[in-house]
Amino acid sequence: MARSIHPTKEKLIETMISLMDEHALASILVDDVLRESNISKGSLYHHFENFDDLVEAALIARFAAGVDSSIYLVSEAVNGAKSSEELLEKIVLVTSATQGRTRSKFRLERARVIGLSVNSPKLLESLEREQYRLTTAMADIVREGQEKGWVSKAFDAKTIAVFLQAYTLGRVIDDVAGKEQQIDSNDWNNVVNTAIKALLTPS
Fold first, then answer.
1. Is residue 54 part of a domain?
2. What are the residues whose beta carbons fall under 8 Å from the beta carbon of 141, sequence distance 6 or more?
3. CB neighbourhood size of 160 (10 A)
4. Residues 68 and 152 in one domain
5. Confidence bin at 128 (pLDDT 50/70/90)
6. Residue 171: which CATH number?
7. Whole domain around residue 37: which residue ranges?
């Protein structure tokens, strides 16, 4: 899943991401990025059409990084398991790691990028490309499980791949609820794991 990117462009994106971690997006200026990255304005505009182009690239990069980490965990589970039962045990651990309250910010940022793409055709195009890459990677892992006879072939691998990404994003609904209204995380994980178990076939 590694992608080729010019080092200067990569540093600019990483700097923007770092600034986004510390400041509200609307408060970040071009000069902040140039100062923190120690890269010239000319170089920035060589790699990006304008500042908004850099912002969108950083948003997409953060969107993808979080999903990539989840894909890696699922891949490790499929490749490390010896049976569908062991796969389920490993997926339960993945669920716990990806669905917790500590991942709330990541889920909200994913939702924000999707929302912003409604009024930005260029962002939407970039998001479509990145989402295609992510879904294809997850579908490939699902197919590995199907070939091993551990994942049901009753559903298309891509459909399962989208579902695996969708329930994580769906947790946003609870992330934005007031603390008094939020559901129990263990109950959520149990529902997710029960749904995943239904997709597995006994060894």
1. no
2. 71, 74, 75, 78, 161
3. 22
4. yes
5. very high
6. 1.10.357.10
7. 1-48
